[in-house]
User: Fold these one by one.
Assistant:
Number 1:
Amino acid sequence: MSLFITFEGPEGSGKSTQARILYETLQAQGYPVILTREPGGTRIGEWIRQILVDLRHTEMSPATEVLLFSAARAQLVNELIGPYLAEGGIVLCDRYADSTYAYQGYGLNHNLDDLHTITAFATGGLMPDLTIYLDIDAERGLERKRQARPAPSPLAPHLAALQESRPPTYGKPEWNRLDARELSYHQRVADGFRKLMLREPERWRRMDAERSIEELAHLIVEAVAPLLERVQQYNPPPNQSLPDAAHE
Ligand SMILES: Nc1ncnc2c1ncn2[C@@H]1O[C@H](COP(=O)(O)OP(=O)(O)O)[C@@H](O)[C@H]1O
Ligand SMILES: [Mg+2]
């Protein structure tokens, strides 16, 4: 068995921060785990991401936006998420299909049934076992994001390699085309996420993103713990299997 966990929430709610902490926690406990993000996470997907976030692309049609997100997702599921789950691992993903429903559905008023059809086509119907929702007022989250400083990320070397000669963007405070939309859009998105949670309450865990980073990390570990039984740990954990040179 495998485990697929996603992080959702408005910009600046702490998704990337908490995904990184959970990744490091599970890895230290000897679980087979990977961390990835949307849009992106693959060579093709990172190129699509550049097109999506480029502030110059003001002419992008709403349908183009949906299809580019979906194309990046299709590649990610096919190339990375699907194969890793098939091996029985844990996949952590910073945003996934729920973001399409919230941002392009509730935010841009696309028909939700159409989005569902496109998403099912892109993902083969793969949905997370658990989705952590970091709940924050949209304006407050954007403010946090504006003030964000570059943070080291376990994804950085991986993504730098994917971006080839392009400058790595991960970990940099990126103020992009999608962030730059008006506040009312971001508020519709946040309301949309709440509606999505009401539809499938068993899959979602909502957390108050105003709590401290440490408190949230603890709550997330608690939420994940019951699901870990289905994943086989490495024995012993890989980073503890090397002899300690200092004692030789
Ligand atoms: N619980 C928290 N309390 C206060 N600041 C936080 C918290 N979680 C994250 N931050 C800060 O908010 C900013 C945005 O966090 P980030 O994880 O990048 O959010 P997201 O990935 O959801 O956009 C970063 O500067 C981060 O350090
Ligand atoms: Mg982020």
Number 2:
Amino acid sequence: MVKKIVLFNNKGGVGKTTFLFHLGYALECLGKKILFVDLDPQCNLSSSICNDEEIDKMWNTQNSIYHAVEPLIKGTGDIKEIKPYIVNGRTIRLIVGDLRLTEYEELLSTAWVESLAGNEIGFRRTSSIFRIIEDISNANDIDYVLMDIGPNLGSLNRCVLLSCDYFLVPLVPDLFSFRGLENIGITFKKWINDWNNASNRFKEENKTLSFHIQNGKPVFAGYINQQFNIYGGKETKTWKYWTDKVPQMIENNLVKKLKDIDEKMVIDLNDGSHKLGDFKSYHSLAPLSQQKRKPIFELDNQDVIGIHRNSVKKCGKDFKELAAKIIRNI
Ligand SMILES: Nc1ncnc2c1ncn2[C@@H]1O[C@H](COP(=O)(O)OP(=O)(O)OP(=O)(O)O)[C@@H](O)[C@H]1O
Ligand SMILES: [Mg+2]
């Protein structure tokens, strides 16, 4: 069965897109069929995979995420079928992003209120992203869906979070991330409770829908300790101070809140912790990988020289271990 995963942090620039991109390619190396979904109007994930002409072609042939929801925006109908971009010779697909997705944000905000009031149109719109992804995943026999979103707690991201099966949190160990985490915990709990109450009430009133809606219980599958801006290869004292506090912060602000809703909403990893892994600094290899439109671990000897080749190998080893851990636990 397909597993839909989103990486969530309302802090910008913490490496969400870069991490997700690498994770997808690593999962593919382990034999999985991947669907990337670019739900960030910045379209960074799309441009990590496609060049400008390819993106333009997907837009011109009406195959971006925007086109899938366009009838709902224009009031002319329900979600529209689109074709994902196929990465040449690989089992990787991409639903291309679109700057115009911001137009959907406002509508989703109203749709949320309509869902809570028990109106069919609210459920239709709030389930739209979920249904688009389900249709494309089934048609393409996808194992893992990896969704990329922007850094905010807006109505589009609420809709995405409730549409996924699992979420991961990349965490920079600093004061601002910790404050952000408190906010995420409180907000997620409210979103999940509100959605579940609204959909349960709808069922209790014996009302039916002609389409599927998400069950709205995304499971927390772990955090990633993001340390790509730690300099000199080791943690400074200040970083260590915050890093040591991470497990307790995760427990108090996320794990406890989700378990209050349902014990099954948190995966306890094999080692008893919630830490999935580290996201290390790959320095100049990160922008190089964007330029070459391939993950760091696929850069070849023509792309990199000397000492950097060791980092390429290390990156491959790290990401494949992480992908294997995800396959074991999710
Ligand atoms: N592990 C890494 N090592 C070195 N540089 C990195 C690493 N991960 C990301 N970067 C760089 O940091 C910048 C931000 O990364 P990225 O776009 O992935 O963050 P993001 O969290 O998705 O940002 P946004 O919140 O805007 O969506 C990029 O320039 C990227 O090349
Ligand atoms: Mg991003």
Number 3:
Amino acid sequence: MDNKAFRYRIYPDISQLELILKTVGSCRFVYNEALSAKEAAYKDSGTVLSTYDLIRRLPGLKKQFTWLQEVDSVALQQSIRHLGTAYANFFNTKLHAKRPKYKTKRKSRWSYSTIVINNNIRIGRNYIVLPKLGKVKAVISRDVPEGWKLKSTTVCVERDYTVYVSCLFEYESTPVSYVPDPECSIGLDYKSDGLYMDSSGRCCGSPKYFRKAQGKLARAQRGLHHKKPGSVNYRKQTKKIARIHRHTADQRKDFLHKESLRIANSYDIVCIEDLDMTAIGRKESGLGKASMDNGWGMFVGFLEYKLRDRGKLLIRTGRYYASSQTCSCCGRIEPKVKDLKIRRWQCPACGAVHDRDINAAVNIRKEALRILNDIEIQKVS
Ligand SMILES: [Zn+2]
């Protein structure tokens, strides 16, 4: 069984939106309450409250805070389960997750999740039926393939009050019997001031509208300084800023989807470097926006599932492979090239002249195919 999520825009009426926001707030309240109960129990008596223990406290809470009775009770349970996952991730040393924190209205996502029980959530032609909300107008932008089973939904309100619902489906995965051809492969080198450079020398920059939106955003933010906090105009301006944010996020996602689709359709094997993005963010903080908003992580995520769906491969080279300092013609390692300012260089051993980024992309492809070859040989022996 495999999972996939579709995201639909929904158009709740005023009373529905009110209830959605109330549910979001109630889930946040229950999450925070469970978090403090868990921490307190541990501090006072060393007891570890399980997710089950915390969910069992819900009826008591509902008696004490009667407004919790108005919202979808499954959503409240789900928010406690999310807390359980947050703790599990925190205690899993491999994940480097942070300790669960209290949610706030200002900083946390405005969302809640609920699961399908007895057909209580249904997708119609132009609506979705959600617990407590009933029929909500929706744009079903993608048809649900036959045999897919709806498992859960997450309702998410953006800061400009547009609302989306993510529907998670379960489906029988059919193994794809496709044999990827190493000849039909490409290496991609992450580029901080674009998206990537590929091993055939094609550079994929990020579209200009990112920068344009940045200017628009800066202007809108300056406009906020002239308005009095709490006033109607102030609120209008924050809404405007939120709208620009969402618009750029949508544009970027759209661009990354198209770019990853193009590659997944054209190549059988895609080779990339396994990067430590948090370290890059730190190192390149001087470069400002460029490196942070080019969305490499999201791009790789899209690429990975699109390739997998087609029976194709994404291969990551090791984190310490010196892709930019190795001559792609003769294999000599030239440590001087470590300096990021060197864009072109000549190999002292074989005389080949290299463009820094193309050379790196070629090496990434070579190294990935070597790794693949090693795996195949191991399989045979
Ligand atoms: Zn060389």
